[in-house]
Amino acid sequence: MIELPPVLVYLLGAALIPLFGRGRARKALLVAVAFIGLACSFSLRPQTSWVVPLSGFELTFLHADRLSLIMGYIFSFIGAAAIIYSLDVVKENGEYICGLLYLGSALGAVFAGDFFTLYIFWEIMAFSSLGLIWYSRTERARNAGMRYILFHLFGGCAFLAGIIIHFMNTGNIAISPIEQGIGYLLLLIGVGVNTAFIPLHTWLPDSYPKATIAGAVFMSVYTTKTGVYVLARTFPGAEAFIFGHPFHFVAYIGGLMALYGVIFALMQNDVRKLLSYHIVSQVGYMVAGIGIGTAIGINGGIAHVFNHILYKALLFMCMGAVIYRTGRMNLTELGGLAKRMPVTTITCVIAALSISGVVGFNGYVSKGMVIHAAELSHMHILVLALTLASVGTFLSFLKLTYFTFFRHTENDIARVKEAPLSMLVAMSLTAFLCVAIGVYPKMLYVILPDVGAAMHYDAYTPGHTMGTLQLLAMTAFMFVALKVLIAPHERITYDIDYLYRKAGRGIIWFCEKPLMAFAGAIDGVLKRIADSFVWFSRNPVAASVILLTATGTKLMRPLNYVSKEAEVKRLTIEEPRERLSIGTGVLLVLIFFLVYLIVMLIHGWLAP
Amino acid sequence: MVLGIMVLIALALFLYERDTVGFYFLYGAMGVGFFVLATNLLSMIQKEGRQDD
Q1: Contact B28 A263 (CB under 8 A)
Q2: Calpha distance A339→A414 (Å, rounded)
Q3: CA distance A207 to chain B (A)
Q4: Residue A428 CB neighbour total at 10 angstroms
Q5: B49: nearest CA partner in chain A
Q6: CB-based contacts of A74: which residues, under 8 Å, 6+ apart?
Q7: Residues A394-432 pLDDT 10s
Q8: This prediction's pTM
Q9: Nearest to B51 among A387, A466, A491 (CB)
């Protein structure tokens, strides 16, 4: 069987979309692309590679090993689910083109074997996903899209600079762990933007809620997870030395993300903004696993990538279906949809239980693996943060599901219809996998990077299971008791982006006022100098005479009581112009160079 | 004061004796308390009004 880079299937699909109109032919093409892409990813075997020599470099467009393969499987599966989901929602060809380019470039990034190829796909991802935001065609989306791309351009520049410095230092472009230095820092910043490290995360909750309904499903999957994948390749178990002691700083960044994301998610009213903050939080678990750096830690981080993609895409699908049917996106405006949208409700509850790490669902397996890895590495603070974040996550999803589906409301939205069939098919397939992996986790273990370590992990030990059940049961009880305090409010939430926007306005003011005034002053001085040169060059002899006369007059002023300055100023007007011949001009230039040469010989070349 | 003592007890149990019966119940309650407190404190510096930019 021919093993093709899956990216080619999606790029070809994107190129063919405009030729298929907007009817059934387009749907058939999209389904074909989804399944061929899926088959292409699943047909790849480890150690497959496609190397293209280019200008002395060997660019590796396909490098398949266990880590890239698991990413390829889940990316192409959820890509297929998102395409099926979007069949009845998306109207414009451009949105499909952006979606396929985004999906294809994400697969191109995870199968890239060198940093330059990775960078190319990294940037295509940023620009194609921008289209998914802008196709909302609202002013909010346009503004959020601009902020999104500015952030990603900044991250892309840092990433490229890190790659170049790494290449200059080592002469190696293969994707591998980076040696410490400025290149290390820049690459970490570049990866950190895509992975939504605190405080580089603000583009995520800002832009995802403003994307199109189908666009948000695509976006919830690829950008951050590609970042985690690159982190696993380049910074596994990254350490910094503080007072001579090694400190797994990336793991603790993950712990911070897990807590920070949950706290802000709990404050949200916009359902997709709530989910966006949970991406930050869940990516925190992945980053923690990668940052711990042990076999079980990296397995846990990657297993969480796999599971998170399933339940987070499902959550965005469910909320997309709710927005599609009701036209409302705030919890304060929703409620009572369980009877009208039963399949959406059931799949959303499955996704909520999965992300909360409830026993029997996929999130329980991978979250437990990451926390277990932290316990084995004696990182107690990290264990504390991750366990606390799982309490907040469950609390947050009790809030989301209750206020969207179960709260009694007299609202007219209680008369809406169930989501279209294509949406329900995609949601049901994804929900099935969430349960299947939870019940039978070995189907995930066999595809993890370190299958030996994964097979030794038992997710269902009595202590872990009972502890999780106790924790979540108490959380549910407390939710019921404190529902009033947790209820959603119509509220403008400020995150760190408030400071960025303030700083941004400050920079714009600085550019428009003091900087422009300074530039104007410099411009004026330069113009005056240029005018003087023009004036002098018109008649150098006469100008020299005028300058000498003016200087002499000024010097003689203390001795000569009668001022001749007015007379001198008139000289420029009264003096007849004298023109030099070309020969004289050339002679003057030659004399100038001769003098310059003599000075150089004496003070430059011949100087000891 | 009471909250602070409870947090300290939960932390001590978390670090040294997680197998205590009912520890996770206590930890769950403390966790919810922490989040309710944190979100309400943050809410005090937030503006009321429709969520937008």
Answers
A1: no
A2: 8
A3: 11
A4: 15
A5: A491
A6: A305, A306, A309, A310
A7: 999 999 999 999 998 877 776 789 999 999 999 999 999
A8: 0.86
A9: A491
